[in-house]
Amino acid sequence: MKSRFMLSCAAAAVALGSGEMAFAQSAPQADSAAATSDVIVVTAQRRDQSIQDVPLTLQAFSTDTLSKLNVTNIDGLLRYTPNVTFSNNGPGQGAIFLRGLSAGFAGQQSSATIGGFPNVALYLDDQSMQFPARNADVYLADMERVEVLEGPQGTLFGGGAQAGVVRYITNKPKLSKFEGRFEGSFGGTAGGTTNGSFNAMINVPIIEDKLAIRAVAYTDHRGGYIDNKLSTFTRLPSDLGSYYLAYQGNGNKLTPSQQSREGNYSNAALVEDNFNPVDYTGGRVSLAWQVAPDWDLLVTQAYQKLESKGTFAVQTYTYDYQPLTGLSSTLFSPQYNKDDYWNTAWTINGKIGDFKVIYTGAYLKRHISQQGDYTNYARATYGIFYQCTGGANYYWNVGAAPYCYEPNSRWNDKVRNTHESHEVRISSPDTGRIRAIVGGYYENFKIQDNMDWSYTTIPNCDSGLTAAQIKAAGTVCLGNVGPNPNATLNVPGPRPDGVSFGQDITRGYKQYAAFGSVDFDITDTLTVTAGTRYYYYDNFQKGSVYSSFNGGCYQVPSCLTGSNLDALGLKSTYKGFRSKGTITWKPKPGTMMYFTYSEGFRPGAFNRGPSARVRDPIAPHAPQLLVPAAYAPDNLINYEAGLKTDLFDRKVTFNLSAYYMEWKNIQIGFFNPAAGFGNTAFATNGPTYHIKGLEAQIFARPMDGLTINGSATYNESKQANAPCFIANNPGVSSFGKCITEVFVGGQVKPVQSPFGNVGSITPFSPKFQGNIRARYEWAGKAGMDWFIGAGVNYISTQYNQPSTYPDGNVPGNGNGVSPNGIIVPATTVLRYKMPGYALADMQVGFTRDNWTVTIFGDNIFNSHASTFTNSSQYIKTSTIVRPLTYGIKIAAKM
Question: Cis omega (within 30 of 0) on the bond before 132?
Fold first, then answer.
């Protein structure tokens, strides 16, 4: 099948760029006649090359193009990139997927601790910005260009580039030219509030041709558009933990007096319209020094602060399961996200003889502080455990009349990430018949994560009293939970009142790598390229996981019951080679064909330690599955063929590519408490997928002033096998066999296809994506040059999760959805089929002298399509595209 597919697509080819000039230099920029051409120069292969000479699927967007399209962040950029999807919970809270290489997306909770590393690398110049489930949302101010490289790029870009690379490349100081630019906009949001942005750049040669500085600053406010509506919360008999309250024949219900006192709550204090604004603030300063004719130094300091409030997901029901319409939610606890980073980078460019030498280093420090509402967890199996006493409860005041406290809950995550990298590259002259590049790489990556879930509303005990004094007084209270004091901790000591569960984890790795790539011109038209990368990862994880799910936490001042991950010695090493080979043929000027074999990978990581799950159907019901602390790397093999060609005297550029990929042993997050897999998520290695696809792009200049860009992709992913969980606990009835039954809720139930079925598709993998845009420019009177532009992009149906999870679109299927569509709180992960959607934008305006005025509209038909549908609080919610935004933008150059 694979060979037939590849042979049928032997004439395939690669991506087009933006059609705008993108002039590539990692060193200080000097004035050049090349800047007047329309050749798009990129550094995708660590050399300056025309985009049409690079044998891979590649797109590039220049500063001018980004400004014309009104693109300033990752959401806007990906509207114009085929074969790219983006799942998110809001700004700075998402993941990029290329070519359908996704195993699903669950969101922010625990991502810093157990989330797998991304398989799409994100770079700011030469600094990797990768982070599990939280791509840094770099603001696109004064960018030289953005490159999107599809397919494995592991040879030159390493383990995070399994599926591809997104590269933000900044403008560098110009040594001999003073210039400046500012841009400001003001507008509104349909159904929401106002937006405004401003950015300014200045480039100053301090010593002409020797020393220059370039600085950019920006601020961007985006008004909210989701309303937090008034809602109540009433404890219901259907709440899964209600049977713990069974008391003297009350039918698992609170008594009427308890209902009136403690059963009904309101979020009136948090009711607010348009309560999800976003603010970007930041800047960048670069200093360039021409040390000698062949040597220069560049130092860049960047800072960005991103702040958002509220939620970016709309609910279908209130927390009392009343229908909710419009762009609305019903949060009971404040929700926010604060995300800032400092990044220092330095580059030395030089020559030793005819060989180019580049050393680049960078140090990133990123802080994230986030809080999310978790109130509806009160309906889960263990929600009542932390909020109610008496009845038949586990530990608290058993036998007394049931009594419940408020349900208001939240989670709070504080993350510190440091990322240091160093790379040296040596390359031979670009004009030789044999061209080589070799290099070495070192990386030190660390995450410090302190995350607390605060859903205990039973009062905490007085920490000034002893346990004996508390018990003597008969106080109904819980001790303050805390981590193991013997573990490596970021925040030592007991946690604040209300914390029920948490993790204080430090994880990371050091990577050492060496790479090389050689191009050999067999003839003037035929070139063979071969490259490989040796990598060595040294991973670690330390810290503590703590909870109050313990009878010893009752009537004590503190409860330091946390685990000690340090004692487990959680370390792992991964090493090996990943290689690439390409044959390129140029049958005539302006036409190139190629075939590529490439390999990609990403390292393994850790869970919160080992665990035991899935109880044996045979008494004494021991756990059948011992989940290890570590999970392994996954690997990708890519076969790709392509064609790039210029037609009609370069009035049309047409590119076509085809690929077939094998994604093996994929890393997948697993969470299914209803099936007996425990109440916490874990990561493991799952099935293999086969992905094949086609991508076509066209750029046309049919007449003076008119440009048309279009692209389309067809992507088909199929699960190739259906592995099972093997019972690995000696002594259980199923030892050594696939786990097919589980004892849960006092019953024996089947365990069916935990990793999905053969033939199912990957999530975030629409079969079809397409976009087209056009721009027409013409000269008017009085020195006014006018323009009008418009574009539309379409994404077909896709899923949010693999077929591992119950189908959230089928009511009454016994998998967590009731006949009326309300989710029964058995699991927070359901699989939804998200409908396809189209987005359109438009710009019109004029340029006079150095001024440009643009009136713009994005999402002009005001779509509310979902980019990520989930059930994280037992209610179907959808993170929607930003509604129609419109405004006026004024820009000027000096």
Answer: no
